[in-house]
Amino acid sequence: MTDMNLVPGQVINTIKENLAHVRERIRLACRASARDESSVRLLLATKTVPADRIRVAVAAGETLIGENKVQELKQKMPLLEGLPVEGHFIGHLQTNKIKDVLKYAHCIQTIDRLDLAEKLDKRLQFEGRSIEAMIQVNTSFEESKFGVHPDNAYDLIRAVGKLDTLKIKGLMTIGLFAAEAEKVRPSFALLRSIRDEALSEGILPPEANELSMGMSGDLETAIAEGATIVRVGTAVFGKRIYPDSYYWNERQG
Ligand SMILES: *Cc1c(COP(=O)(O)O)cnc(C)c1O
User: Fold this and answer.
1) CB burial readout 169-185, b (16+ within 10 A) else e
2) Is the pLDDT of residue 94 over 80?
3) Each residue's pLDDT tens digit, 53-76
């Protein structure tokens, strides 16, 4: 079922070419902002992408994948077992899915409310371990997007920081979804300024400096604004049949 040979050769080639192209875009964007290439990691947003296609990307050297739905994470991670892959959770997390997400995710990027963090902490204490986490901030002020309101981000970071089982790595945002990449820049700049202030105030520990932001259409802008993780789906795996609102909006999700 996960045999890469079942992926048509044309699709394998397309994924590899797309990856090379995205890698080149990242390289150029880093150069343009005089950043070291190794300061930006590529996370593949693999929603709706079958495991055998993900394996193609892994065979090409990719190691980070992000899933939006616990069900998909749960289904695919076992099919990728034994591969050097880190699964991140990048979707809206409901508290009734905590056990499963903890089983399969290496990092939860979407901590956006304290009750969620506390429930994760409780479960992790029970399991006697910790997990990497990021705080999701709603930098676009759109109601349909999840994430803590920027005004409340510092309080949330401080509170989550007190939970030993959640190792905060930094901040994540989706940003304003716009046809023009330039329109999203203020979202990314806002996330960076929240991180910088939280670091300088000591609310975030020095090592929690990650910024997960930027997607297929705007990764250059995100890198210019300081992204350390860009999350790319379409540019590698092609268009999805579901609109993103299906994944980003609770009412439809
Ligand atoms: C789908 C998704 C991405 C990637 O979007 P593309 O436009 O396909 O690159 C990034 N982040 C999140 C949270 C997503 O749901």
Assistant:
1) bbbbbbbbbeeebeebb
2) yes
3) 999 999 999 999 999 999 999 999
What's the gap in Å between 191 CA and the centre of ligand 1? 17
Give, as one character, the DSSP assignment of residue 161: H
Q: What does the alpha-carbon distance between residue 197 and residue 241 come to, in Å, rounded to a whole number?
A: 39
| Encoded tokens for 45 | 């947003």
Out of 19, 215, 234, give the residue to mutate to test ligand 1, the one with the largest number of ligand atoms within 8 Å of its CB: 215
d(CA 120, CA 130): 10
Q: Which two tokens stand for residue 200?
A: 């300088």
Residue 111 near residue 135, CB atoms below 8 Å: yes
Q: pLDDT tens digit string along 115-140? A: 999 999 999 999 999 999 999 999 99
pTM score: 0.94
Q: Which residues line ligand 1 (CB under 6 A)?
A: 45, 47, 68, 90, 174, 215-217, 231-235, 244, 247
Q: Which of 118, 70, 134 is nearest to 97 (CA)?
A: 70
